[in-house]
Amino acid sequence: MSANPDIQATIERLRGEFPILREQVNGRPLVYLDNAATTQKPEAVLRVMDHYYREMNSNVHRAAHELSGRATEAFEQARQTVADFLNAQRHEILWTRGTTESINLVAQCYGREQLREGDEILITAMEHHSNIVPWQFACERTGATLRVVPLLDNGSVDLAAFEELLNERTRIVALTHVSNALGSVNPVADMVHKAKDAGAVTLVDGAQAVAHFGVDVQKLGCDFYAFSGHKVFGPTGMGVLYGREALLEQMPPYQGGGEMIETVSFERSTWAELPFKFEAGTPNTAGAIGLGAALDWLTNQDRKTLAAHEADVLGYATERARATEGLRIIGDAPMKTSVLSFLLDGAHPGDVGTLLDQQGVAVRTGHHCCMPLMERYGIPGTVRAAFSVYNTRDEVDALFDGIEKVKTFL
Ligand code: C6P
């Protein structure tokens, strides 16, 4: 299961907390290797969300009654949990629907407001569409230009090119912490530091980072940090935007409606204080509480052990991949988290995925919402096995048994 018996016992216990891992798929035990798309949920999260609807459900921040008080307290406690998780202040944490909405919020409320013709936004060639398209919208509206930092062949950012591209016109640097398609981990603290020296505002897409290692926005020094609840053992439809107070104060509201106002008249309205200025309408209260429970659950694990286990599983999978004839790994950056992206000679990634599914192995195939990255490699897509804390060496073996069978079919 794991090379180390102590870690093995920890992972066996931890797997028991995820009911879905006991599912059968196509008559086989589920081997879930699609964790970059979404992670599974532990009992702690399922319990809290069920409890919310059974014993607390009501609208937050609005009513004088007891239930609303309970819901509001749990909702704001969850915000505090996120703030502690990222080492931020509570009012710098905004609830969103996910990473996508968090980035759109910044592109709209900061980008469109601040950018002028001739300004530049710098992203990398490994970005998810969510960290490309919102900036294209902002460029169309303002006349700013999108510049792209190229990658080295191994899937790392070309840091020399990054430094060359940074200049006095660079207003925003938006980069992913970890690539969802390759697993490459970017040296974000260093890149943010350089971007700040050039006078740019920085946004980090943390969608693929928070489930794998601790994130401290003070140490990173970034202005914005975005992530999705569902990729860190929490519910779908729930995300986070951390924003530095001074910038959030300066930005106009995102949407208009209830909750985000201080006063409304037909002539003019004024805005609520942070973070509520950015949270129009009834929020996803159960989602926020579920996300808080997920982060509490993760924080209460021995994260060093989990990181060592994930590194072991990725290392083992990479070894097996290298020993597999006809398999080509896409992305072997020196700093990687739990993603193994690959192609099989003569096989379309989609067919490989379907045949693996028939054997109970769930992977994602295709461009992984990174079409420009696939173009960079001259490929239509990859097969992606994305591991999480609960995956094991045995499951890696199941993947490679499956791959051998696929090779005989195709
Ligand atoms: N990547 C994947 O299978 P949302 O959909 O808003 O929760 O997350 C968007 C997103 C943004 N940035 C990165 C780096 C991501 O990986 C994702 C989501 C999933 O890789 C679904 S495409």
Describe what you observe in this structure:
The protein contains 14 helices and 17 strands. The protein has 410 residues and is of the alpha/beta class. It folds into two domains: 5-32 and 302-409, Aspartate Aminotransferase, domain 1; 47-299, 3-Layer(aba) Sandwich (Aspartate Aminotransferase, domain 2), CATH 3.40.640.10. The strands form five sheets. It has a seven-stranded mixed sheet, sandwiched between helices. A four-stranded antiparallel sheet has the order 13-14-17-16, with helices on one face. Strands 1-2 form a two-stranded antiparallel ribbon. Strand 5, helix 5 (133-142) and strand 6 (145-149) form a beta-alpha-beta unit. The model has no long low-confidence stretch (mean pLDDT 97). The site of ligand C6P has 17 residues, from helix 4.
Extract low-pLDDT stretches. none
Proportion of residues in helical segments: 40-55%
CATH class of the largest domain: Alpha Beta
CATH architecture of the largest domain: 3-Layer(aba) Sandwich
Strand order, biggest sheet?
Answer: 4-10-9-8-7-5-6
Beta strand count: 17
- By CATH, the superfamily of the largest domain comes out as Type I PLP-dependent aspartate aminotransferase-like (Major domain)
Q: Quote the average pLDDT.
A: 97
Report the bound ligands by name, code or SMILES.
Answer: ligand C6P
Radius of gyration: 22 Å
Gap from first CA to last CA? 29 Å
Look up the CATH topology of the largest domain: Aspartate Aminotransferase, domain 2
Structural class: alpha/beta
**Number of structurally distinct domains:** 2
Provide the β-strand percentage band: 15-25%
